[in-house]
Design goal:
The protein is of the alpha+beta class and 164 residues long. The protein has a domain at 51-161. It contains seven helices and four strands, in the order H-H-E-E-H-H-H-E-E-H-H. The protein is globular. It starts with a helix and ends with a helix.
């Protein structure tokens, strides 16, 4: 009887350990994908709005940089975000990490070179499903020549420049 009970306990522990291992394996890529690219958002020093008050959803929906309005706002990551309409605000509120600019709105080309430089919300591109802002038009062109390589290099410096 004691042996049967021990075998059941060991089997249960193995099942629990397998479940935890599967959970960690599935959760790890999500953290690695979104963690380093979102956060430390640039805000307008005068208004406090993220990305100078531009609507992050409009880049995806309208393929345009559009300023949000005061009657369509939300707060995420302790930062105020503006939107052109309630639909965009609702979409962002449902899953902000999808729409928020990567690297907090900093230029990925400059990050790839080891510097944290503010991106301009009017100089933008969507690559690999992510929104990126650029310091100069030349940086945007360089990014578009090799988005995957630039993002990989920028990620290497992101953790050093923003370790918290």
């Amino acid at each position: 009887m004691l042996c049967e009970e021990m075998v059941k306990n060991v089997s249960s522990m193995k099942s629990i350990a397998a479940g935890v291992a599967i959970f960690l394996a599935l959760a790890a890529p999500v953290v690695a994908e979104t963690g380093p690219e979102n956060g430390h958002f640039l805000t307008d020093p005068t208004t406090g709005y993220a990305i100078d008050g531009y609507d992050p959803v409009a880049y995806y929906v309208d393929a345009a940089a559009r300023r949000g309005m005061g009657d369509h706002e939300t707060v995420w990551e302790d930062v105020a975000w503006r939107f052109v309409n309630e639909g965009n605000r609702s979409a962002f509120a449902a899953d902000p990490s999808v729409y928020a600019p990567r690297f907090g709105g900093r230029c990925p080309v400059m990050l790839a070179r080891g510097y944290a430089s503010e991106g301009d919300p009017r100089l933008w591109a969507i690559a690999g499903g992510g929104l990126y802002f650029f310091h100069t038009p030349e940086n945007r062109d360089a990014f578009l020549d090799d988005p995957d390589g630039t993002i990989a290099e920028a990620r290497k410096h992101w953790g050093r420049l923003f370790p918290y």
